[in-house]
């Protein structure tokens, strides 16, 4: 997810899970009707010879336009990663993107209460319903709804901002470059 994961302890990788298929995903929650998403693009985060995760960006139409919702970012982890390491990596990326420290701290407090540790094969998905409302899903089970007008764009900026620390991942998620993942 973020460069901070590069320094996180890496546990042995036994085998990658199966490749993503070009399919639709349906996620339900009590506050929203079922939405069907189509893939915009996919990418894989590698560090040295380790694969950390595979991510897919999905929208209702299969095309991305900033500020157009709903959309879904789905991350499948290839390694066990503690939530503290995910939080630190996210903080590093927000600092890289030059978000205000007070905003970073507010957003981290939201995530601290929400994110679990992830294990190999787990999915952590981020669904943005509208400009004010977003929600994480852990293995397709809903976690708390986040009501913060700036959070969704800030979280997505880690991957989708032109100033991201990983421009090649951005290009793959946006479908501008293919990923052989």
Please describe what this structure looks like.
24% of the residues lie in helices and 31% in strands. The protein contains four helices and seven strands. Strands 1-2-3-4-5-6-7 form a seven-stranded antiparallel sheet. Residues 1-34 have low confidence and may be disordered. The protein is α+β, with helices and mostly antiparallel strands. Helix 1 (83-96) runs antiparallel to helix 2 (101-112). A hairpin with a 2-residue loop joins strand 1 (25-29) and strand 2 (32-47). The protein is globular, with a radius of gyration of 15 Å.
Shape: globular
Cα radius of gyration in angstroms: 15 Å
Tell me the fraction of residues in β-strands, as a range: 25-35%
**Main sheet, how many strands, which sense, barrel?**
7 strands, antiparallel
Strand order of the largest sheet: 1-2-3-4-5-6-7
Task: Give the averaged pLDDT, no decimals.
Answer: 84
Determine the structural class based on helices, strands and strand pairing: alpha+beta
Number of strands: 7
Percent helix range: 10-25%
Keywords: Isomerase
GO molecular function, one term: isomerase activity
Protein name: Chalcone isomerase family protein
Domain Chalcone isomerase: 73-175
